[in-house]
Each structure stands twice: as structure tokens, then as C-alpha cells.
Amino acid sequence: MKRGGVALVVTVLLAVAAAGAVFLYVTNVKQSAETRGGTVAIVVAKEDIPASTDLDPLIDEGRFETRTVLRDDMVEGAVTDVYQLRGQRTAYPILAGEQIAAARLQGELQAAGGLLGIPEGHEAVTVSLDAPRAVAGALGDGDDVTIYATFDNVAASEVKAKSVTVTSSSVTATGFKAFVGGDVTIVLVPQVQVLRVYGSTGGIDGSGQVQEATGTLSVTLALLPEDAQKLVFSMEQGTVWLGLLPPNASGKDLKPISFAQVLR
After folding, report:
1. Residue 4 pLDDT > 50, yes or no?
2. Which of 11-25, 81-95, 214-228 is the most confident on average?
3. In the chain, where are the structural domains located?
4. By the 8 A CB rule, do 255 and 179 touch?
């Protein structure tokens, strides 16, 4: 082979090697960034949106979608939930696919329920649960759950349900439900709406198989104030489980159950 041909081959090989090195470097940098900062889902428009456009009709028409970006690449104030666009108008044009910063919007997010869509008279409480206690992550926004709580070494007691009549000679008690002491499981709240689920939730993979969540999940629930108080106490003093209700089903308020009742 002539010297010129050899030089050409060497040049081509060096170019291929350099390209491979650049590819490996870029891949490693990307993997390192993903490992270091993680990713986050953000909301983008499917098409260009002019300035001074009301966004509610576009939301109803499905003109927005979510995309995943590196957390380090997320712009300040980027919209991460389409609900954040409710009641908003664009102050500046928004391009298809670009991150939507809150600074590019005008109007106040004062829709009923606020950012989480909390029902009137309720408040949002977030609890952190191991995946099995939260239906292995098979929860979604808007689902209804029953909250169960278990307490250890509960003293034998009675819960007043209706009234007590006291006379000079006797005490008449009506409407009481009694349960024995020891370990007790109760229906804390029969039916509660799930507002948000944070963490690695389960789902269906590409082959149609159910994937179970692992680790810890944070679940935000819409609770009446008195139920929120009960849940906080139960999280601090007992053990809490969630039971997922079927669509359009109602939760049931059951009598407390103890070890003795299980044996029966």
C-alpha cells in the first residue's frame, strides 16, 4: 500500500476513535448528571401559545403534556402540575415544548381548593408510609381510600356514642360500644380523597405486568379537621394502613377489632 493510502487509513481510524471517545464522554456526563441531580416532570405546551391567552380552555382541550428533564436543567419557577395553570393567562408567548415559568404568566391562582384542589371544609395532610401500607403505590390523584389504624396495649374502654342518664339511684348508659384491651385495629376514617402521591409509584410496564412500588411513599389526603387530628395522632402513636376503594364505592365504618375478636 502506498504511503498516502496508509496515512488516509490512519487518519480515518483516528477520527473514528476520537468520535467514539466524545460519545463515551457525553454519555458519561449525562449519566453522571442524572445520577447526581435526578429528574423532574415539568409541564410544556404541545403548540405555541400567544401572549394574553387564557389557559383554562387549552387545559380542557389537552393542549399541555408532561416531560422529564434533569433537575439541574429545570428553570426557576417551572410549572410541574397543569393545575398551576388554572385561572392563568400568558403574559408572554410560550413556545411548544419549552418549560413554562410562573413569571411568564399573569393572574393569581385562587381557584377553589388552591394548588391541590382541596375540597371545601377540608385540609391537606401528607403522611409518609412504607409502600405496602400505601397499596404498594397503586394510588392516583382523586382515588378514595379507607384509613385504618392499629394501636398496641390499649386499655379496656368504652366509647360514648349517644347519651348517659344519671339518677339518684342508678346510671343508665345507652349507645355505647365496648372493646377489649390489648392490640386494637380501627377504621380511622372510612373514606378519604387522595390529593397527591409522591415517590416511586407502581404501574404497568411495557409487557403489561404490574410493577409494585418499593421504599417510602408520601400521600397527601383531604381530611376534615377532626379527622386530620385523628390521623396525626395515629401516625405518632400507632400504625396506619390505607385501603384503596373501587371507583364510585363508599367506605364502611366498622367496629374496632382486637386479638380476641380475631380468634372468634
Report:
1. yes
2. 214-228
3. 39-106, 123-263
4. yes
